[in-house]
Amino acid sequence: MQLIAWSIPGFIVFILLEAWLARRRGLPVYHLPVALSDIACGITSQLFNLLTFGLGVAAYAAVYAWRGWDLDPGSGWTWLLAMLGVDFLYYWWHRASHEVNVLWAAHVVHHQSEDYNLAVALRQALLTGLTMVPFLLPLALLGVPPVVYVASRGLNSLYQFWIHTELIGRLGPLERVLNTPSHHRVHHAINPQYLDRNYAGILITWDRLFGSFEVERERPVYGITKPLRSLSPLWANVHYFFDIAAVAATASRWQDRLRAAFAHPGWRPGRPDYPPLEPAELQARAAHPYDVRAPRGLRLYILVQAVLGVPLTMYLLIQSTVLAFDLLLLGVMFVGLSTVTWAGLFERKAWAWPLELLRLAVGAAVLYASRA
Predict the structure, then answer these.
(1) 325 half-sphere exposure, CB direction, 13 A CA radius
(2) CA distances (Å), 327 to each of 312, 320, 335, 366, in order?
(3) pTM above 0.90?
(4) Worst-scoring range by mean pLDDT, 208-212, 313-317, 329-333?
(5) How far apart are CA 329 and CA 334, in angstroms?
(6) Exposure check for the chain: N or C terminus, fewer CB within 10 A?
């Protein structure tokens, strides 16, 4: 987690650089409200992980106690095993997260943006850090030390940042082995031939071996087949659970109600699966990605709040082990609430300004009390 926290300044620099280069080339790959929504999802995900990460590490340590042998954490072979193991098991977690409804409900957040840029790499879900843990526990039985496991998992996540871009084309022979921007654009696309393809983390080899590989040919159209049309990080994380409940409610048999949680996301009881999007709809989605218009002053105000919220998030992540728990929890709630108000202000929700003023008042009171 510290690895990701210390990488935040680099993420922001590269996002700004990409936005500048895209603007110079006349490529509309960024829309400010959507990019801030992506960052808001990343912030809420990291803050939630801050409170739950220890559960995953504890589960790993408990299984590690049953290991058959000890591996030297200073050995290069141990690190190689860990990196390959994390990448291989990540592939199967990622694939399951597209093929099992309840796992897709957690993972769908990462795919909701209809833009494709480096900010999308930060668009992570609240629950995926927990859903991934069971898939990675075999590494504990193999004897991979917890510190090596945590670092390898962080490095795997860090690698995947740079592949979320439209500004990098094909990379020649590297495309045979590595997951690249081209391969990952396919993964984020809703074109029928691209659905459920290219699950790799670092090595595209797994997709080639297990039949889930697809080459980028047609221009990708991004998002999810049923568009979210919202900037709220909270709604982004819960909306598909409501969709599952709605599907279960239409089922007449209890077996189908149970199946709704574990079937493929396209499954419907007693009906054909959802058909792929028609070319006309794909064209319309590509031409009009989701965005909202807001006055310049409001955009500037929200941008300033985001500029303040990102370093505060970094501070909470890095100082989490030394801050008093009550202050840490207040900080998490303050920053998390700010991401909700960004969305509400952009979307002109009636509750947004009252909630924003309350947030600022509470934040000022807490800051004053902490200095008293």
Answers:
(1) 1
(2) 13, 10, 12, 9
(3) yes
(4) 329-333
(5) 9
(6) C
